[in-house]
Amino acid sequence: xxxxxxxxxxxxxxxxxxxxxxxxxxxxxxxxxxxxxxxxxxxxxxxxxxxxxxxxxxxxxxxxxxxxxxxxxxxxxxxxxxxxxxxxxxxxxxxxxxxxxxxxxxxxxxxxxxxxxxxxxxxxxxxxxxxxxxxxxxxxxxxxxxxxxxxxxxxxxxxxxxxxxxxxxxxxxxxxxxxxxxxx
Length: 184
Fold this sequence. Notes:
Number of domains: 1
Radius of gyration: 17 Å
Order of helices and strands: HHEEHEEHHHEH
Structural class: alpha+beta
Helix content: 40-55%
Distance between the termini: 27 Å
Strand order of the largest sheet: 2-1-5
Strand content: 5-15%
């Protein structure tokens, strides 16, 4: 995915979450992470392709601050909203997204993730989503500031064992060997 497409995804998420009182920068980061992870699990490639870094509140896209700054006042605005003891940095779309160059199956999965976390009674707080993101093995095996490898989605999480086929296990081992070789 190109940088321009990634920006369109951010505008898309902001527009789709516009009525979610819990939506802000933290929730945007988690929606991106969950969408990328699920797309990787299903397709063996990430949706956006951005790298995710372990931050104290959960995974964040690498360079998200730079991208957000490039987009501010053109594509998105940041509204500062009092949310209990916190200040929520609500991301507001300033225009309609152009998703015409993004694969329909990517938009479908992204929309599904957005609907799951941002719709009506199911709307989750940023705090809940941060805590939820800490349940993934990729979070456990990295240090603050390190990249969370997409391949970690194939590992067992803390609460649910994922049953993999023999082919998936072989593919996971192959990815781990390639990752280790490239980072040696």
